[in-house]
Design goal:
Blueprint: H1 10-13, H2 18-41, H3 54-65, H4 68-85, H5 98-181, H6 185-213, H7 216-220, H8 223-238, H9 254-263
Helix pairs in contact: 2-3, 2-4, 3-4, 3-5, 4-5, 5-6
Length: about 260
């Protein structure tokens, strides 16, 4: 049976290696350089005052794909690049106008909040995938456990019924041989009848166990027919009064029908 090992949490899986830090830093730097170059080449600022929002596309993309570190770094680099290359006076971090300072502050706050929200959504998606994987593993283990219990039950049935019938046949066969050796045909005939009775009972028991393992009627005739035959087998096998209230054939796959048959 498969053993389910400890599934690492999203926080543990998210612990970045130093190479991941380097890659995230390069992506954040590259995204900032690309957007700044496009804005500067097209002289879009201050002609379009809200053009700085284009940086948010890089921030959101990094937060969704790489994580909080890359998005936060991209936010900081975007503010610095926007101030240094686009906000007058150029090529300095000095901000001469209060409006420009307010724009930078609002942009930084928006970028940080956006990166945190996108990163949180990414973590939630990772946690959901982890729970889905764990649920799938637990389901597979439950199926294997059910199959093992079914095999153990069939083994007990074989030991309790069929093996006893075979043992009885062996004893009566010895009785037949002794009766024939002592020239007692009537006793031999009676013993043969007992052998036949035990053989028929053992054969019926074996057929019942095979039917329980995988009834052919379940695949050819459907779940209702298989359950009906199972009820008839229980009546004949255990001499019980069994009643079944069955409805129309359900529209299910063979695997689901077999699972329902096992439950019944």
């Amino acid at each position: 049976m498969k053993q389910i090992g400890r599934i690492p949490s999203p926080q543990e899986r998210a612990k970045p290696h130093w190479r991941r830090y380097v890659n995230d830093s390069l992506l954040a730097l590259g995204g900032g350089v690309l957007v700044t170059s496009l804005i500067a080449a097209g002289h879009l600022y201050p002609r379009i005052p809200t053009i700085s929002l284009v940086y948010l596309l890089v921030v959101v993309a990094l937060a969704s794909t790489r994580g909080l570190y890359a998005a936060s770094l991209a936010s900081l680099l975007a503010v610095l690049a926007f101030d240094y290359f686009l906000v007058p006076p150029l090529y300095t971090f000095v901000v001469s106008k209060f409006e420009d300072l307010l724009t930078l502050f609002v942009f930084l706050a928006t970028a940080v909040i956006t990166s945190q929200l996108a990163s949180a959504q990414r973590r939630s998606a990772e946690e959901a995938r982890g729970r889905e994987r764990e649920t799938r593993l637990l389901y597979e283990q439950a199926q294997e456990l059910a199959a093992l219990q079914e095999r153990q039950r069939l083994a007990r049935e074989l030991h309790d019924s069929v093996s006893q019938a075979l043992y009885g046949i062996s004893l009566w066969a010895h009785t037949v041989r002794e009766a024939l050796e002592s020239s007692e045909p009537e006793q031999a005939e009676a013993a043969i009848e007992d052998v036949l009775t035990l053989a028929e009972a053992g054969l019926a028991e074996m057929h019942a166990l095979i039917f329980e393992l995988r009834p052919e009627s379940l695949e050819t005739e459907g779940l209702v027919a298989a359950l009906t035959k199972q009820v008839e087998a229980l009546r004949a096998r255990y001499k019980l009064t069994v009643e079944a209230d069955l409805v129309d054939e359900p529209d299910l796959s063979l695997e689901k029908k077999e699972a329902l048959y096992r439950i019944a």
